[in-house]
Amino acid sequence: MILLTGAGGRTGKALLRALVAKDAQVRAFIRNPEQADGLRALGAADVAVGNMEDVDSINRAAGGTDVIIHVGPPMHPQEREITKSFVEATKNSGASRFIYYSVMYPILRDVRHHSLKLDATEMIVNSGITYSIIEPCRYMQHLDPIWPAVLETGVHSMPFNTKAQFAVVDLEDLAQATAKVATEAGHEFATYELAGPQNLSQEDMAAAISEVLGRPVRAEALPLDVMAARAIEKGASEDRVNQMRIMNTHYDHSGFRGNPNVLQWLLGRPATAYIDFVRRLAAG
């Protein structure tokens, strides 16, 4: 049995589908019990309702599992403490391996979202457990929420300059690679940087969208104040909005570039190209 935390989120659901496709038995760990039926419909063999800040619920969920995959809440200030609770649950339950879903380049200390994961990684490495660490780059799926606006306005707009490059990666590829790591031997004590096949700017992405749609789409940097206001409207905390500002300021001048070799080795095939992701999105 594999315990999958954060199973109700976008990443968790993708991982669940990929694990089920590998015939894995998955126990989905969620906070909201209303998500249980939907996750069972995706193939979860069991659902554990709990709270990542409640050690007792974590230990109950971990009982009888062989592998724990931890997908933490995004930008949570208690990242290290929450992760440590799951590491301790790995020890207490007798699970054979802990898989930490982190972020590419946690060494970026000026970006708290990254540095918190570096602290958690250091704790995991020093914990004495058997672990694997997944370090994904920025998702291609960041296009999803702005897709209606792109179709309506012909503008691709994200909160960093239009020339900064990102090795954007398809979440479906990441999920398949993580499922392989979780269900096959040979990945113990491995840390895998998983980046997409091209380093692309907003201008490159807009050009790919233009090609797929057959009409012009241009790139435009979204002002950080506009990004912050929209996040607040959606209920983001002040702390999270501040971290989003710091992260996107870093991306504005440095981008987020990477290399696809490790991902493609795990997949056993070429990683999904951005234009193919756009074609899939446009096809509905």
UniProtKB/TrEMBL annotation:
SUPFAM superfamilies: NAD(P)-binding Rossmann-fold domains. Residues 2-250 form the NmrA-like domain. InterPro entries: Ergot_Alk_Oxidoreductase, NAD(P)-bd_dom_sf, NmrA-like. Gene3D superfamilies: NAD(P)-binding Rossmann-like Domain, UDP-galactose 4-epimerase, domain 1. This is Unannotated protein. It comes from freshwater metagenome.
